[in-house]
Amino acid sequence: QLRLVESGGDLVQPGGSLRLSCGTSAFTLQYYAIGWWRQAPGKEREGVSCIAAYNVSTYYTDSVKGRFTMSRDNAKNTVYLQMNDLKPEDTAIYYCGASPHNCDADYEGYNYWGQGTQVTVSS
What we know:
single chain, mainly beta, 0% helix, 11-stranded mixed sheet
């Protein structure tokens, strides 16, 4: 179900940074695990990162460890993905998903999604 809104995607040069935001007015995000997924043309959707409900834990796929960081601002009901040292292979549409359960390696575990925001890393 489309209930989330992503923003912050842009065109950036390699080595640059972006901060993506995921929010909604429909429900309280702190009660949900929030995952960031990305999909490049011709590729399947790839799990990037996930922050558990109540920030119990965070997870990052190996390719972004040390570069990407998730966080929450509960007062704004918003989840962020800070992306540093961006690489061309990070180019994709980025989606956030909300799971009422745990962080899930399967995208089918996320009940709510946004429409995506485009991140393009190019010189």
